[in-house]
Amino acid sequence: MATMLLLTFLISSLIMVTVGLAIDSMEILLLGIGGQLSVDTSDVEMASLDFGLLTRGQPLAVLHPVSAQDIARVVKEAYGSNQGMTVSARGHGHSINGQAQTTNGVVIQMSGWKGGNKPPRPRVWAEERYVDVWGGELWIDVLKSTLEYGLAPKSWTDYLYLSVGGTLSNAGISGQAFNHGPQISNVYELDVVTGKGEVLTCSEDENTELFHAVLGGLGQFGIITRARISLEPAPKMVRWIRVLYSNFSAFTSDQEHLISLHAEPSNQKFDYVEGFVIVDEGLINNWRSSFFSPQNPVKISTLFPTGGALYCLEIAKNYHESTAQTIDQEVEFLLKKLNFISTSVFTTDLLYVDFLDRVHKAELKLRSKGLWEVPHPWLNLFIPSSKIAEFDKGIFKGILGNKTSGPILIYPMNKNKWDHRSSVVTPDEGVFYLVALLRSALDNGEETQSLEYLNNQNRQILRYCDEAGIKVKRYLPHYTTQQEWMDHFGNKWDRFYEMKMEFDPRHILASGQRIFTPTFPSLSNMPS
Ligand code: FAD
C-alpha cells in the first residue's frame, strides 16, 4: 500500500513537470530499488536546502541507497528515459549555492541512512595503510574508524561533518595541504556510478581518465560510492599555536617559509599551516577560533594597528608519547625563524582528535545562539602568491572595512602537491593562497550584516580582482552560465567537456552545479 502511494505521488509529480512521461519506466525504476526511495516531506525538504540557505531546489524524491547498485539502477533509468529525470548525489548538503540540489529528479542522499539496511562501514586495511569508505561517509566517522587501528587519513578539511564524496568532488583542503596535498591527492581508488549507470572501479592504473576526472570533478562524471583513502599512523597529541602579525608581508613571508619546508623531515616542519585575518573579535567573526582564552596574557585589541588588520598565523605540530620529550625544542627552533609580534604567542596542547574536530565545537556554540542556520554567502578564492599583497591592500585593508561578519581564512599551498590531471583548477603559480570569506548574513537590522550587503561586497571583491588583473580561481565555484564555467576551467575546459560527454553524455548528474543542461528534449525548466 505504501509503495503504491509512493508511486502515485512520484508519478503525478513527474507528470506535472515533464511532457509525455512513460509511466511504465518509472514503475520499473521504483520497484527495482533496494534502498529506500522517499517522498516524505522531511526528506524532500532537507534535500531542497543546503548550508548556504541561498537557493532552494525541490527534488521529486530522495533515495537512501545502501549500495552502488541502488544508485546505478536509478541512474540507468534516468539515462534510458526521455523524460528529463536528473540525479544528484547529496553528501551532507554543506554546499553554498545549491550544488547538490535538483528540481527534476531524484536526490541520492549519500550520508546517513534510513531503515534497517546500511551502506558498508569503513574497512581499514591496517598493513596496507588505507581505508575503504562509502562515498557518503562523514570524515568524522572515517577518523573514528581508522583511529581504532591507530591510523588516520593525512589530509583534512577544517570541519569533519562533510562527506567523503562531497569533499573529493571539490578538493578537500586544510592546513595539511601544503605537506600532503589536498584530500584528492590522497586517494588510491574509487568506485563510481557514471551517468550511464555503469559501476566502475577507477585508479591510477584502471579507468585512469575517469579517476582523475572525478577528483575535483564537481560531481559531473559519476557518483563516488567507495573511496580508498591513504592513512598514516595517527598522532596522539597536537601542539596548536597562534601568533599575531600587524605586518602583512611579514605574515605571508613566514607562511611561505613554513610551507617551503614540506620536504624536510617531520621534526623540522609544522604539520599544519593556516592563518586568518582579524578585523574584530565578535563571536560570529571568530567562530573558528575560541582559542584566545580569557587567560590570554595579551589583549588582542591593544595590538590593532590604526586603520589596519591583524593577521594570525595558525600552526600545529603533531606528537606522540615517543616524541613528547623533543616537541618543545622542535617548536622553539621553528618559531625562532619567524617575525611575529613577540608578545603574541598563544599555545595549547590537545588530543589529535579534538584538534581535527575543533570547528564542531564552534558549530555547537553558534547553533545554541541561533547563528548557524542562517544564510552563508561564502566566497572562497585561490590567489596567486605574487598578487596576495595587492589583494590585502584592496580587500582586507580596503573593501572589507572593519566589519567582516565571519572568519576570513588565508593560507598558502604548494601547487606541486596537486595533481594537474585532476579536474580542479588552481592558479598558475608554484604557491597560491586560499582566501576564504566565511560570512554569515544576519537579519538584525545592521546593514553590514545583511545578505544583500554581503552579496554586493562579494561582487565588489571579484570586480576588484578582475580590474587589478589578479587571476583568482574560485574554490567551491559557482557560476550560472556555461561561458563563465569555460573561463573558470580555462585550458582544462576541453578535457572537462570531453569527459562529460564520455561519462555523463545526457548531463543527468549534479545539474545543481549549473555547468551543463540536461539534453532531454522534453525539458523546459532546467537551470541554464
Ligand atoms: P554536498 O554539498 O552534499 O555536495 C557537494 C557537491 O558534490 C554536489 O555537487 C554533489 O552533487 C556532489 N557530491 C556529493 N556527494 C557525492 C558523491 N558521493 N559522488 C559524487 N559527487 C558527490 N572545504 C574544504 O575543502 N576545506 C574546509 O576546511 C571546509 N570547511 C567547511 C566548513 C563548513 C562549515 C562548510 C559548510 C563547508 C566546508 N567546506 C570545506 C566545503 C565543503 O568541502 C564542500 O561544501 C563539500 O561539497 C561539502 O560536502 P558535502 O558532503 O556536504 O557535499
UniProtKB/TrEMBL annotation:
<dbReference type="InterPro" id="IPR006094">
    <property type="entry name" value="Oxid_FAD_bind_N"/>
</dbReference>
<dbReference type="InterPro" id="IPR050432">
    <property type="entry name" value="FAD-linked_Oxidoreductases_BP"/>
</dbReference>
<protein>
    <recommendedName>
        <fullName>cytokinin dehydrogenase</fullName>
        <ecNumber>1.5.99.12</ecNumber>
    </recommendedName>
</protein>
<dbReference type="GO" id="GO:0071949">
    <property type="term" value="F:FAD binding"/>
</dbReference>
<dbReference type="GO" id="GO:0009690">
    <property type="term" value="P:cytokinin metabolic process"/>
</dbReference>
<keyword id="KW-0732">Signal</keyword>
<dbReference type="Pfam" id="PF09265">
    <property type="entry name" value="Cytokin-bind"/>
</dbReference>
<dbReference type="GO" id="GO:0019139">
    <property type="term" value="F:cytokinin dehydrogenase activity"/>
</dbReference>
<comment type="similarity">
    <text>Belongs to the oxygen-dependent FAD-linked oxidoreductase family.</text>
</comment>
<dbReference type="InterPro" id="IPR006093">
    <property type="entry name" value="Oxy_OxRdtase_FAD_BS"/>
</dbReference>
<dbReference type="Pfam" id="PF01565">
    <property type="entry name" value="FAD_binding_4"/>
</dbReference>
<dbReference type="InterPro" id="IPR016170">
    <property type="entry name" value="Cytok_DH_C_sf"/>
</dbReference>
<dbReference type="InterPro" id="IPR036318">
    <property type="entry name" value="FAD-bd_PCMH-like_sf"/>
</dbReference>
<dbReference type="InterPro" id="IPR016169">
    <property type="entry name" value="FAD-bd_PCMH_sub2"/>
</dbReference>
<dbReference type="InterPro" id="IPR016166">
    <property type="entry name" value="FAD-bd_PCMH"/>
</dbReference>
<feature type="signal peptide">
    <location>
        <begin position="1"/>
        <end position="22"/>
    </location>
</feature>
<keyword id="KW-0560">Oxidoreductase</keyword>
<dbReference type="InterPro" id="IPR016164">
    <property type="entry name" value="FAD-linked_Oxase-like_C"/>
</dbReference>
<feature type="domain" description="FAD-binding PCMH-type">
    <location>
        <begin position="55"/>
        <end position="234"/>
    </location>
</feature>
<keyword id="KW-0285">Flavoprotein</keyword>
<dbReference type="InterPro" id="IPR015345">
    <property type="entry name" value="Cytokinin_DH_FAD/cytokin-bd"/>
</dbReference>
<keyword id="KW-0325">Glycoprotein</keyword>
<dbReference type="InterPro" id="IPR016167">
    <property type="entry name" value="FAD-bd_PCMH_sub1"/>
</dbReference>
<keyword id="KW-0274">FAD</keyword>
